[in-house]
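From the shared-data thread, chain only:
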Amino acid sequence: MDVLAGLLDGPRARGAFLLRMVMEPPWSVRIEDRAPLCLMCVTRGEAWIVPDGGGDPVCLRPGGVAVVRGPEPYITADRPETSPRALIGPGGVCHTLEGEPLAQSMRLGVRTWGNAPDGGTTVLIGTYQMDGEVSRRLLDALPTLLQLPADAWNGPLMPVLDDEISRDEPGQSVVLDRVLDLMLIAVLRAWFSRPDAEAPGWYRAMADPTVGGALRLLQNDPARPWTVASLAAACGISRAGLARRFTELVGEPPMAYLTGWRLALAADLLRGTDATVESVARKVGYSGSFALSAAFKRVRGVSPQEYRAGGATTGAVPGAAPGTVPEQQRSSP
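Structure, as tokens:
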């Protein structure tokens, strides 16, 4: 597993919100669902996405795709200047700006919604409701809004999603979840590969023969009792050489990266499974529950038990490389 694969292993849609939106201009919808991630693609016409707070609008045309990172609101419309006429809140609940429900009046069929059955614009929308820690690390690596035109990514799954989204068959939600996952992976892989993507340091470091190898070792086997010396030996480089080059390219020392990765995996296991803290600790490389609890509380500000129960977390570094922890917390993993 490489580092990008490790991050993409997090988003696993489970009952994602999927919709085909069919609209005839003028139209404008304000999105306030607070979803952490939304993927939109246009199959007909064009749609503008206008971020809140004055960000530059982007235009999607047929074959184009965009990923919007929440929870900040945004507008999607036929033109940037069109005033919103509907609002979508948490859970995909839609109503007018005055609060009148629109779910039934704009329903056009199975997972199809809009203001005209034969509208000139069709947008496919897939929204994740994910809160795992590994997923948050992926979100932190993304801009608020990324967009790819049709010729910038390989989009054979778009017709599949377009065909499947209006089906109503047994197990259909699972099919749609998996298609959405594959589309997101294809889009992010294409976006990270672009020269102008401003990819984070950990992604660029994957191309380095030495540091890329070190990242893969840490990613694949976080439970191993790594030291800088043992990691350097496995990579065929001196300890000092690895520490210097790793920090230079990734933006943090190897053991700090490992700490962040282990604790992110632990957090995902705590929220996503019923494994004991002791079991989680050993799966991610700690000697037992006491060692994991000490590291977790030092970095996250709460104990594993409190986190599992829904306690607030601290220690996140928005926009940082996966594995980053605050400078003052960079002690042993």
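The longest strand covers residues 37-44.
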